[in-house]
Design brief:
The chain is an alpha/beta fold. It has two domains: 72 residues, no CATH class; 163 residues, 3-Layer(aba) Sandwich (Rossmann fold). It is 38% helix and 14% strand. It starts with a helix and ends in a 6-residue tail after the last strand. About 4% of the residues have low confidence.
Amino acid sequence: MTRDLSLVGTQKLGYNPVYCNWDAWAGHWKPKCVGKPQFIQAGGIAEKMKESWEANVEPGVKIVDFRSPVVDKLPAQPEFDGMGMDLPPDDARAIHQLITDFRKEHGRRPYVCEIGSWAGRSAIIMAKAGAQVLCVDTWEGSKNDEGCKAYDGSRGTPLEVFKRNTASYDIGYMQADSLEAARRFPDQKFDIVYIDAEHDYDSVKADIEAWLPKAKHIIAGHDFQSFPSVRKAVNDTLGGCIASGNVWRAEVGVACG
Ligand SMILES: C[S@@+](CC[C@H](N)C(=O)[O-])C[C@H]1O[C@@H](n2cnc3c(N)ncnc32)[C@H](O)[C@@H]1O
């Protein structure tokens, strides 16, 4: 297990996530006492592991050699690139809470559809909290968001940066306009729909109306405090909601105010 993790980690993350002291390994209790690991050839390893790194390894390379030159060829795990957009810590906590509350109540991980993801920051928070996330975005930026507009494209298109940022998480994506994407899904497809695209009154109202039927349990979103237009659209459309700071949520089919 540790060996597989080391090799898969080295291939996918660009570093070895597992460290072990070879001498401590030798002699630890097993049904029989084993010696120190010996060099083996790539051809002698289990099929599953072989497949996982064969693409990067020349036949005959000894496992002990994998740090160099193989590791040098692997891309290092990228730093998160927000492309000009940040998220206050309180908002991040509330998004995390949205997922943990669901898990506590339902005893399983939710399937979340996020409308408006940009660099993937909020999607990653949800994925880290245990959600499976589908991100719907045009990746063309929002009219009212200076952060999106400030990104100069020097590190790739916004979608390319998003894909790099989210590569190691359970996050999928659909590049599409919000309302057009909503038409592609059957009703109640997602446990939670999280809305954070345009922030003017008409757009938020249209997003809520289009996505409400697609949510089985919760419809939620961002900027309840920072945009009065969002607050009004949420209240007018859903008859109120629970707000945790800037993050609003409403249980589907339950009116509150
Ligand atoms: C505020 S950002 C999302 C930030 C992200 N939720 C976070 O907290 O990290 C808004 C995103 O909505 C997207 N967007 C704006 N209008 C849209 C539309 N009509 N359909 C799909 N995405 C849209 C923009 O491209 C942008 O990426």
